């Protein structure tokens, strides 16, 4: 069974010392890679957001991210798949 390739985008991040200290502390405490920890923090933030609207998120993706990949249909399909799966799995409030 083949895995779908993960499309990763580098995101430059400027952190204050306390933020870096927290990331490094939790990465060591939970034996996680710092990048994996930051990804998890982003998802936890979204799950805690009582105002998060999956439909608005999907509209944003279609308007902002899909046009950026106009020359890459595979990337467009992967973005749509990942965002629709995330939106569908998001807890109903």
User: Uncertain segments of ≥5 residues (pLDDT<50)?
Assistant: none
Question: Distance N terminus to C terminus?
Answer: 36 Å
Radius of gyration: 16 Å
Mean pLDDT: 85
Shape field: globular
Structural class: mainly alpha
Number of strands: 0
Largest sheet: none
H/E element sequence: HHHH
The helix content is 55-70%
**Domain count:** 2
Approximately how much beta-strand content do the residues carry?
A: under 5%
The helix tally amounts to: 4
Task: Describe the structure in brief.
The protein has helices at 17-29, 34-48, 54-68, 73-89. The protein is an all-alpha fold and 93 residues long.
Describe this structure in words.
The protein has 93 residues and is mainly α. The protein folds into two domains: 16-48, no CATH class; 52-93. It has helices at residues 17-29, 34-48, 54-68, 73-89. The model has no long low-confidence stretch (mean pLDDT 85).
């Amino acid at each position: 069974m083949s895995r779908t390739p993960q499309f990763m985008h580098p995101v430059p991040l400027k952190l204050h010392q306390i933020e870096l200290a927290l990331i490094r502390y939790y990465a060591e405490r939970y034996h996680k890679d710092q990048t994996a920890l930051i990804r998890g923090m982003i998802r936890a933030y979204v799950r805690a957001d009582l105002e998060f609207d999956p439909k608005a998120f999907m509209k944003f993706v279609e308007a902002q991210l899909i046009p950026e990949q106009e020359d890459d249909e595979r990337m467009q399909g992967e973005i749509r798949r990942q965002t629709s799966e995330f939106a569908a799995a998001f807890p109903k409030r």
